[in-house]
TrEMBL record:
Organism: Paenibacillus amylolyticus
Protein name according to UniProt: Zinc-type alcohol dehydrogenase-like protein
Cofactor: Zn(2+)
A Pfam family it matches: ADH_N
SUPFAM superfamilies: GroES-like, NAD(P)-binding Rossmann-fold domains
Amino acid sequence: MIIAKARAVDGPDQQFRSAEIKRRDLDTSDVLIEIKYAGICHSDIHTAHGDWGPVNYPLVPGHEIAGIVTDVGTGVSKYKVGDRVGVGCMVDSCGECDNCRKGEEQYCLKGNIQTYAGVDKYGEPTQGGYSTHIVVTEDFVVRIPDNITLDAAAPLLCAGITTYSPLHHWGAGPGKKVAVVGMGGLGHMAVKIAHAMGAEVTVLSQSLSKKEDGLQFGAAHYYATSEPETFEKLAGSFDLMINTVSASIDINAYLSLLTLDGTIVNVGAPAEPLSVQVFSLIGHRRSFAGSMIGGIRETQEMLDFCAEHNIAPNIEVISADQIDEAYKRVLASDVKYRFVIDTSTI
Ligand code: NAP
Ligand code: ZN
């Protein structure tokens, strides 16, 4: 048994506290990772606050994990001690269903095992990356390219793959007009990645306060959704829209911005439903879709793509004592553009 230091929360209205958690002894295929950095995803906040339903507390969130391999099980072949590695939103899946065999483990028909707030195959609750160590089966570990620093790598493990996967799947590239709705952690990665894929990128943000950043990340256009004329001006414009907003929005207003056969992909995961008027869809053969993270193979592909295109998130590194304050700032859309915990401060 390995005892790791962690930061845990005991209820929706509680503050984070120091904790010790158990990590299992290494099974043959397991890798022990000393976590160096853990990103703060809005999903951590939804989960900690119970937005998506009841959670077993104490909860240690964190699914944007970057660190160093410090031990390996006897059957591990892909990693060795000293390797720079990452772990994202899932730590296991059945490995046998159609979706797992396709490399889409996030859509495992038996349900993938989430990095935190899940139950692993040993029947133990999973605890995430706001901690010093984690044990993960090697098939759910990815390699961090040498030219990406570990602090910047962490947010790629969720924000990066969650935006790369739909952009790739729906063919963002030259000649395609892509809009990114909401420019927070996911949104700013969507802008950088879509631009690197060759698409013409537009940001739709609540205000123009982050316009300079958006243009610097690669957007060609930037509009405020608080201005009603934005929706008139952009009607019928976009082939693909990635909605990263963490709250419920008037999705019909956004659907009206799609061109013939255009698609909005929802990656934002508000607790409240989004009400779609069918006429928003049938008028121009539009689609309203969703997407969840990406598979392990695709996550490695995304990391290699980011390394090749020199893409990294804009981060603010914080100490473990600042987690509560960081949550408040994320909820106020006051994050540029991802908080990353330096786990040496845990
Ligand atoms: P974030 O950093 O808080 O970014 C969300 C952005 O949405 C904000 O920066 C803000 O952008 C905009 N926004 C927030 N509240 C809004 C409101 N009331 N009306 C309009 N716009 C609003 O969060 P994140 O970490 O990127 O995560 C975004 C969402 O994706 C969360 O719901 C999260 O749970 C979900 N998520 C889903 C997956 C998946 O697999 N599908 C993976 C990770 C996260 P502006 O300031 O630019 O307007
Ligand atoms: Zn996430």
